[in-house]
Amino acid sequence: MFRFLLTALLLAAAAAFFTKPGEERAEALLGERIMRAVAMKDISLDNGAAGNALLVGCKLRPSDCITLLQTQIDTQYTDLKLFSTYSARGFGLKAWCLGAYTRLFCPGGFREI
Questions:
Q1: Inter-residue contact 21 to 103 (CB < 8 Å)
Q2: Element (DSSP H or E) covering residue 48
Q3: If residue 53 lies in a helix (H) or strand (E), which one and from where to where?
Q4: What is the rounded distance in angstroms from the CA atom of residue 40 to the CA atom of residue 96?
Q5: What global pTM score does this model have?
Q6: Which run of H or of E encompasses 86?
Q7: Element housing 112 (H / E)
Q8: Which residues have a Cβ under 8 Å from the Cβ of 91 and sit 6 or more positions away?
Q9: Contact 92, 113 (CB under 8 A)
Q10: What whole-number distance in Å separates Cα of residue 37 and Cα of residue 55?
Q11: Residue 23 CB neighbour total at 10 angstroms
C-alpha cells in the first residue's frame, strides 16, 4: 500500500513538473481572462468617456486590446519546479495565480488594490 501511494505521488509530481505553464503561457491565459472580463462589461456612464472608448476599442479589436492592456500591467512570474506562480497588478486590480497541470488558478480572482 505504501509503495502504491509513493508511486502515485511521484507520478503526480512528475506530471506537475512537465505540465506547469511557462511564462508565455501564463501571459496568454491572463489575456484570455482579461478578454472574458471585457466581453462581460457593459458601456455605461460610470466608466466615463475614456473608459467607454477603451471598452469599445477592446470589443472591436480584442488582440490589439490585449497587447495594449498587457503593457500597462506589472507581472511577475516565478518558476517553483513543480508549479509556478504568476502575479499581476494594474488598473487598480491585482491577482495572484498558481500555474499547474497546464492551467492557471487564481484564488480570489482579480481584487481591487
A1: yes
A2: helix 48-60
A3: helix 48-60
A4: 21
A5: 0.69
A6: strand 84-90
A7: strand 111-112
A8: 69, 72, 73
A9: yes
A10: 11
A11: 15
In sign, the C-alpha dihedral spanning 22, 25, 29, 30 is: positive
- Closest among 40, 8, 13 to 109, alpha carbons compared: 40
Specify the pLDDT at position 102: 86
52: which 3 cell numbers?
A: 467607454
pLDDT tens, residue by residue, 9-47: 999 888 888 888 888 888 888 778 777 777 776 655 566
> CA-to-CA distance for 80 and 19, rounded, in angstroms?
13
Q: Terminus-to-terminus CA distance in the chain, angstroms?
A: 48
**How far apart are alpha carbons 42 and 58 in whole angstroms?**
12
Scan for cell 502575479, then name that residue.
87
105, HSE (Cβ side, Cα atoms, 13 Å): 9
Coil, strand or helix at 26 = helix
DSSP 60-79: H-HHHHHHHHHHTSEEEEEE
All three cell numbers of 64, joined, read 490589439
